[in-house]
Amino acid sequence: MPHSEQSDAFPARALIALGANAASPEGPPAATLRAAMAAVARLGRGARRSRLWRSPAFPAGSGPDFVNAAMAIETDRPAAELLAALHAIEARFGRERQARWGPRSLDLDLLALGAQIAPDLAGWTLWRDLPLERQSREAPDRLILPHPRLQDRGFVLVPLAEVAPGWRHPVTGLDVMAMRDALPAQARAELAPLG
Fold first, then answer.
1. Average pLDDT, the chain
2. Closest CA to 51 of 154, 159, 192, 168
3. CA distance 1 to 113
4. Which residues form the 7,8-dihydro-6-hydroxymethylpterin-pyrophosphokinase domain (predicted)?
5. Which of the two ends of the chain, N or C, has the fewest CB atoms closer than 10 A to its terminal CB?
6. Neighbours of 115 (CB within 10 A)
7. From the centroid of its chain, how far is CA 45?
8. What is residue 157's three-state secondary structure?
């Protein structure tokens, strides 16, 4: 399996997932995501934006449907700085971190930054393999890159395929299209483009 423990080459392409299923100061989730995309675009250059997609809340029954999207930007910011900037945007849109997997006004996930693996391959593997029942109770105390479950989530991969179809996972070597196409048909069928 291809992997590199560190890749600090800048600028790097940052992949970001956006989601909301509660109102924000900008309005309903779709309006929130459109406004948030403008804010995220200012964190780098060459921003690419997916369409907006509707998806059921995860896990099932945990809240109203989500509106999801993905972006790719070129940035000179290191991962920790970029994550802090994303959290600041979430806060401006009324995000409060109260319940894991609960309704939220805005969720911005740093999915990947170039080919970086953080904190290292062993740490990434630990979080990728964490059982679902523990995922609902535990959150990492540091940034894990790439996002340890991006390859399992249709609501991430379907929009991501619109902005970074050729990005290759630095651990598995699979590109976004291959990961999307490997999802169960139901995971892709649950998503519907908005307008």
1. 90
2. 159
3. 19
4. 100-111
5. C
6. 21
7. 18
8. helix
